[in-house]
Amino acid sequence: MINPATLAAMQQLGLPTQIDYTRYDSLLDVFEHVIKEHGDKPAFSCLGHTLSFKQFGEQAKQFAAYLQQHTELQAGDRVAIQLPNILQYPVLLFGVLLADLVVVNTNPLYTARELKHQLNDSGAKLLIVLKNVASAAQEVVPETAVEQVLLTELADFHPAPKRLLINAVVKYIKRLVPKLDFAKSISLREAMALGKRASYKPVQVSNDHLAVLQYTGGTTGLAKGAMLSHGNILANILQCEALFGSYGMTKGQETVVVPLPLYHIYSFTVCMVMVEEGSHCILIPNPRDLSSLVKAIKRYGMTFFCGLNTLFVALCHDQGFKQLDFSRLKLTLSGGMALTEAVAKLWQQTTGCEVHQGYGLTETSPVISANPGGGNKTNTIGLPLADTELVVMSEQGEILPIGEQGELCMRGPQLMKGYWQQPEETAKVIDAQGWFHTGDIGILDPDGYHRVVDRKKDMILVSGFNVYPNEIEAVLSEHPGVLECAAIGIPDDTKGERIQMYVVLKDKSLKGEQLKGFCKSKLAGYKVPSEFIISEELPKSAVGKILRRELRDKAIAAATG
């Protein structure tokens, strides 16, 4: 079901409305194909070391062999991966998939409370974690189903001299590795040695098999696991591949810089697409370290950069970045948060390359639509991918015509199987006709492009990360000096949105900094409110529900004068 205006726009630009998905039976087929096709070409680089596709394939199979023959994991068991963007991530990710296990992407910045919920909800039996960020895991693993912890150090996949040097600096000079004592753990290097001596046994995996549990926030304040099958992710890979032709991308010839965290669905899928394309992926462990990011770009070059509004702003104001050679840069993609027109112009002025904005959600693997090459329209979310139905729907379930606002709803092969063990929550977002309700208010323009104009739900988008008010409010409400509270998001030029917390106190002596400190101890940094506003009361409906929208409207009005 494609609106005639949208169909006309897609046809004019030569974009396919349907594609063939039978090329691969699963993500494992993709893996085998790229290893065979691209062998000695560079696959991943990080911190000055590069793995070829052949090395990537060998190491992934070694890890899969370890999982098969030296653990008690069974097909379908969950494995949590808590790593930044380092070489271990893609290798271990595909090792898990090759063993017919399920990846649980896990934020390395999670607090103990957040990590405990995700491990317990997923039922993960193995946790793979970088030593630097393993303190939270040490605290909560005994209270979860995790049977073993696999510990890795930053440079474990580097050759010996450099590996020893980097790991020693991280541990002894920078003192970034805490003292750890798990009941049952193994180092990655030990596991890989065991896997190397074993032999990998190929498994039969279909596109219906679960591949990833990708956690996303919810109205209850507790994150839910979106069940993404091999088929869901593969569909989105091939849909994006069809789109990438419009940008002039060539298989096996591109270099993509990946600064956004791979545990986030946007970066995860971009990386998967580029693996299928046989591209060289430059992994950036810490994008906030602009100096290191710029050095990596200078060293390897780039034809493709994926980022978001906040990162574009930071880079465009960095002197080192502005001096780089951008002559090979073909494509810049923006996702995760809204791209402002001013930032899009600034990036193009700095690099000479347009920014193409896409749109999607965790539940849709994630890409639903994007601005194609030759048809880039700022302030829109572009055109739907192949085989993707995107409509504007009324609250009564009617599909609305051009120019009328309603909820954006989609259907397509990239749509999740549902929320892990939560059929009631699944039914709230996927209706009887198979439409996924995004919670975003949108409009279809006469030229066939969609725009997002508002959000139906209260979710706050901070630097591309979903933050749900209920979760923050639940945490702050645990403070004995807080009577009630309400969190809202207000526009921010740097982050997209920042969090304001309105608080009614029991203990009138409490200050905002004390409340912020309390939140910091229980929430990942991006979820901590930037402002605490002490109030005598909060606006409520007739039935006593706090009216966040009223608070937000007042805050925006005050900010704009």
TrEMBL record:
GO cellular component terms given for this protein: membrane
UniProt domain AMP-dependent synthetase/ligase: residue ranges: 31-420
Record pathway: Lipid metabolism; fatty acid beta-oxidation
Main location: membrane
A GO MF label: long-chain fatty acid-CoA ligase activity
Subcellular location: Membrane
Domain AMP-binding enzyme C-terminal: 471-545
Signal peptide start and end residues: none
Record keywords: ATP-binding, Fatty acid metabolism, Ligase, Lipid metabolism, Magnesium, Membrane, Nucleotide-binding
EC number, as in UniProt: 6.2.1.3
Membrane topology (UniProt): Peripheral membrane protein
Cofactor(s), names only, from the UniProt record: Mg(2+)
PROSITE patterns (UniProt xref): AMP_BINDING
InterPro entries recorded: AMP-bd_C, AMP-bd_C_sf, AMP-binding_CS, AMP-dep_synth/lig_dom, ATP-dep_AMP-bd_enzyme
Protein name: Long-chain-fatty-acid--CoA ligase
